[in-house]
Amino acid sequence: MRWQALAETASTPNPFFEPWYLLSALHAFDPDGEARLLVVESGDTLIGLMPLASVRRYGRWPLPHLAPWLHANAFLGAPLVRAGYETAFWAAALALLDRTARSALFLHLPAMPLDHRLTTALNELAAMQGRTAALVMREERALLHSALSPDAYLEAALTGKKRKELRRQHARLAELGDLTFERRDDAYGITTWIEDFLVLERAGWKGRAGSAMACAPETAALFRNALMQAARLGKLERLTLALDGRPIAMLANFLTPPGSFSFKTAFDESWARFSPGVLLQRENLALLLRDGIAWCDSCAAPDHPMIDSLWTERRAIGRISVGLGGSVRQALFNQMVARELGRNPTGIV
Q: Which residues make beta-bridge pairs with 265?
C-alpha cells in the first residue's frame, strides 16, 4: 500500500496518521465521513498525506478554520511527508487550501513537532511567500533519547535513594508471588493482551474519570482494531508485569523507526505501594538498546508526575496557525494573530 510505504519514509514519523491507526480512528469517530484526506503526489509518487477537518470554532471564538483531523487519542498532528519533500508538500498543500478554503480563515496545526525539518520547512516557505505562520502555543513533553545504557540512564535520572527504593519494591513484590515480566513485538496472544489491558485500565482512575479506552465503545473499538493491526505489522511493542499470571502493569509502544511512541499504560492500583507502573517503565528503558529505535515520545501531558521524573529529555510540541487565501483574507488573519498573541503570548487555544 502506497500509504504505508509513505509512512515508512516519512521525515517525521507519526503512527496516528498511518493507515492501520487512522482508518480505525475514522471508522470509530467519523462514521459520516466528514473528514477529508489531503494527498500530495509528485508524478506517481505519494509524497504527503494529512487528514483534514473543517472546524467552526477556535477556542472560544467563532472563527472557521481548517485543521488536521485529530481526536483525544492522537498525540501528534504532523502530516506524513516523504523525507526530502517537505517544502514541496507544504507548497502544494497551501496552494490547494488557498483555492478551496471557502469560509476558513486559516490552517491551524496542533501538536506539531517543533524541532523537525517538517516544521522548519513550513516556516521557511511561509517567510518566502510573505505568509504568516504563527506559533501560538509551545509546550514540552517527556522524551527518551540517549546514548546511555538502560542502567546508566536510570542512574543519571534518579537519585541513589530512589533507585534503592525501586529495588526494594521489586523484591517485596516478588515475595508475594510469581513476579514475571514479558516483552513482545509480535501478534502472539494479542487478543487476550488487549482485553486484559482494557480491563486493567478501566479498573483504575481513568475508569473512574471516564477516560479509559473501555469507557466508550468507540475508543474500545479503536484500541482493539489499531493494536491488532499494529501487532501484525510488527509496529507494536507490549510490556507486561504480572503477579501469579495476573497483569498488574501493562504498556503499549508504537514502533516507528527511527522513533517510537509510548501509547498507553495502565497498572493495578491495589498494588500501588509497590509502584508497578514505575517498575514497568524501568524495563521500558530497554528501548535504548533496540536496533532502529533512537527515541521514544512519551505522548504524555507536560509536567507528568511520573514520566517526567524518569525520562530526562524533552520534546518541543506546538500549535501553528498559517494564513490562507488572498491578501485581504491574510490581512484579517494577521490581525487575529496579533490580537491573540497580544493578549496571551501562548495563544487562546
A: 251
Counting beta carbons within 10 angstroms of the beta carbon of residue 327, is it exposed (0 to 12), middle (13 to 18) or buried (19 or more)? exposed
For residue range 249-274, list pLDDT tens digits in order. 999 999 999 999 999 999 999 999 99
Q: For the segment 164-219, what is each residue's pLDDT rounded down to a tens digit?
A: 999 999 999 999 999 999 999 999 999 999 999 999 999 999 999 999 999 999 99
- pTM for the predicted model, two decimal places: 0.95
> Residues spanned by CATH 3.40.630.30 within the chain?
146-293
Cα Dmax for the chain: 71
Cell of 44: 506517481
Pick among 2.90.10, 1.10.1220, 2.40.30, 3.40.630: CATH of 2-140+316-343: 3.40.630
Name the residue type at position 227.
L
Among residues 54, 63, 55, 53, the alpha carbon closest in space to that of 335 is found at 63
Q: In CATH, what number does 146-293 get?
A: 3.40.630.30
Mean pLDDT of the chain: 96
Kindly compute the dihedral angle of the four CA atoms of residues 213, 214, 217, 222, in this order, to the nearest 10 degrees. Answer: 40
Nearest C-alpha neighbor of 166 from the set 280, 257, 31, 75:
280
Task: Name the residue type at position 25.
Answer: A
Using CB atoms within 10 Å of the CB of residue 138, give its burial: 0 to 12 exposed, 13 to 18 middle, 19+ buried.
middle
User: Please, how many CA atoms are within 13 Å of residue 201, restricted to the half-sphere of its CB?
Assistant: 24
